[in-house]
Amino acid sequence: QQQVRQSPQSLTVWEGETAILNCSYEDSTFNYFPWYQQFPGEGPALLISIRSVSDKKEDGRFTIFFNKREKKLSLHITDSQPGDSATYFCAASGGGGTGNTGKLIFGLGTTLQVQP
Amino acid sequence: GPKVLQIPSHQIIDMGQMVTLNCDPVSNHLYFYWYKQILGQQMEFLVNFYNGKVMEKSKLFKDQFSVERPDGSYFTLKIQPTALEDSAVYFCASSPDWGDDTQYFGPGTRLLVL
Fold first, then answer.
1. A3: which of A36, A43, A73, B37 lies 20 to 30 Å off by Cα?
2. In chain B, which ranges are E strands?
3. pLDDT in tens, A48-64
4. Cβ separation of A46 and B102 shorter than 8 Å?
5. How much is the average pLDDT of B32-54?
6. Residues of the domain holding A16
7. A95: pLDDT confidence band, cut at 50, 70 and 90?
C-alpha cells in the first residue's frame, strides 16, 4: 500500500504557466512534508518543505498548499521555466523526536516538462 | 548548499560478490540514511544510523546488508553476498540534528549485479 501518492505522473506546461503537482498521504502521524527536485543522473535536492502546523509555505516561485483534514498537499510552481523540467518527489515523515527516526516516505514522483 | 558525496558513482559486480558503497556526509551532520531506488519505482528507505548504531531499518534491509561509520570516516553500506535484485541506485542522505528534519542527498551509486 502506497502511503504517499502523487499525481499526475507527468505534466507538461508552457513557459510562464503555473504547474500544479499534487500529493496525498495516508498516515495522519506524518507532520513533515518536503518536496525534492531531481534531475536525471543526480540525487534529489530539497526544494521546499512544510510542517503540518502550517497551511502554506512560499519560497520564491514555489508554494506548498497543505490541507491537513483532507491529507492533501500541492506544489505550485509559478512562472515555470524550462530549467524547472525535472522529477518532483513529495515525501512525508513523522519528523525527528521521540519515537520517530526521521525516515522519509516518498511518492512515485511527477515528471514536469516545461516547454519554451 | 551542503554536499553529500558518494563513491563510486557506478559499480558492476557479479552475483554473490561483496560490494561496499561509500558515503561522505556533510561534515557536521549526525544522522545518516540509505535509500534504494529501482528505475521507475519510488525511493525506499533502507536504514538510518546515529551515534554508531542502527536506529531503524526497513524490510528491504536484508541480513546481507550492513552499515557502519568507523571513526568518523565514510558511512558505508555493505552487501555480502549480492543478489540480482540488489541492482538499483542507492542514495545516501544526512541530516544535522534531531530537531532538523532536512535530509541532504548524495548523487547516488548505480549498482548493477550480473
1. A43
2. 5-7, 10-13, 19-24, 31-37, 43-50, 53-57, 65-68, 75-79, 88-95, 104-105, 109-113
3. 999 999 999 999 999 99
4. yes
5. 92
6. 4-91+105-115
7. low
Instruction: State chain B's maximal CA–CA distance in angstroms.
Output: 41
Residues of A in contact with B55 (CB under 8 A): 101
How much is the pLDDT for A102?
A: 80
Superfamily (CATH) of domain B5-113: Immunoglobulins (2.60.40.10)
Q: How many domains does chain A have?
A: 1
Residue A96 lies in a domain: no
- At B22, the pLDDT band (50, 70, 90 cuts) reads very high
Q: Which of B23, B31, B36, B42 to probe by mutation at the A interface, max A CB count within 10 Å?
A: B42
> Amino acid identity, residue B2?
P
- Considering only CB atoms, which chain A residues are within 8 Å of B3? none
pLDDT for A100 beyond 80: no
Would you state the cell numbers that stand for residue B3, as one nine-digit string?
Answer: 554536499
